[in-house]
Amino acid sequence: MVTNRHIGGIARVLILCLCVFAATTTSLFAQTDAAKAAYNEGQTAKQAKNYDAAVAAYKKAIEADASYYDAYLNLGVVYFATEKYDDAVQNFKLATEKKPDNTEAFVNLAKVQSVLKRYPESIQAFEGAVKNSATLADSAAMMLEIAKVQGKAGDQPAVIATIEKIHTWNAATDETWYALGKAYEREKNTKSAMNAYEQSLALKADNAQAHFAIGNLHLQAEKYALAAEQFKSALQDDPKNYKAAYNYAFATETLNPDSIDVHLTNWQEYIRLAKNQPKAQDDVAIATQHVKELQAAKAAKAGN
After folding, report:
1. Integer CA distances (angstroms), 77 to 36, 80, 94, 108, 297, in order
2. DSSP per-residue string spanning 160-228
3. Residue 250's closest CA among 241, 263, 261?
């Protein structure tokens, strides 16, 4: 989840899930041959996942040139990869001090602070990235990250305020509308949540997560036909979405309990999708038992 330099813009970095290992072999900011040589050794070692050697090389580069931004940045990346989060924080902070007008170190620092559940510090670092963003799209992407951290901290009013600010910039995306919908849903404002999810779908029709969220709202309201329709759409958008498969099977069976063959097909499809999902094992066991019950009911019906 941590970036390196030269990936190609903050918005693109976020889309790429903040890849840890995309690295360069030279630095534009190296000021001595000794520092540059050590830094390149570190890059080679990091790409080979020889992290101890990478740490030693980056430290050697910093000893040769204490202003070497890329060395601090990549040392932080290695510490993050090896789960030495406090060391990663220290080096990303140093990188922000060496180049306070850059964005990558602020983003990386924010991500590590979030992992450590230091949410105010994470938000502060993302705000540094917003300040340094070159484009409105980059600023909006950073603001969305701030909203996600606010959500982790459980501050839904702050999430709503942050995303609404993005929307005043005319920088709305399907992701911002979806995040706004989740915040409203957690605030139990179902009407506003539904509207936000629908806005998300308007910007991206094949939006499995928005279909799923709308389906859940309909399910809670016991509108089973509408719920089934949304879960079916979610499965069309994402055929591996086992949660949508479960809810689709449940909504469909609740709507029309007598269609045993249909329900058998739906529950068997759920079991197929979810059987290798560790978090779904209890539900898979329940669904498996229910399939046996449906098969028994089908046999009894045929016997009559």
Report:
1. 18, 5, 13, 8, 58
2. HHHHHHHHHTT---HHHHHHHHHHHHHTT-HHHHHHHHHHHHHH-SS-HHHHHHHHHHHHHTT-HHHHH
3. 263
Instruction: Report which of 266, 268, 242, 243 is spatially closest to residue 256, judged by C-alpha positions.
Output: 266
User: What is the Cα–Cα distance from 26 to 32, expressed in whole angstroms?
Assistant: 12
Rg (CA), the chain: 25
Report the distance separating Cα 61 and Cα 233, nearest Å. 54
Write out the DSSP string of 210-221: HHHHHHHHHHHT
User: pTM of the full predicted structure?
Assistant: 0.84
The contacts of residue 126 (CB under 8 Å, 6+ apart) are 106, 107, 110, 142, 143, 145, 146, 149
Answer yes or no: is pLDDT of 4 > 50: no
Q: Does residue 27 surpass a pLDDT of 70?
A: no
13 residue type, one letter: V
- pLDDT tens sequence across 83-119: 999 999 999 999 999 999 989 999 999 999 999 999 9
Q: What is the pLDDT of residues 112-155, one digit of tens each?
A: 999 999 999 999 999 999 999 999 999 999 999 999 999 999 99
Checking if the pLDDT of 39 tops 90, the result is yes
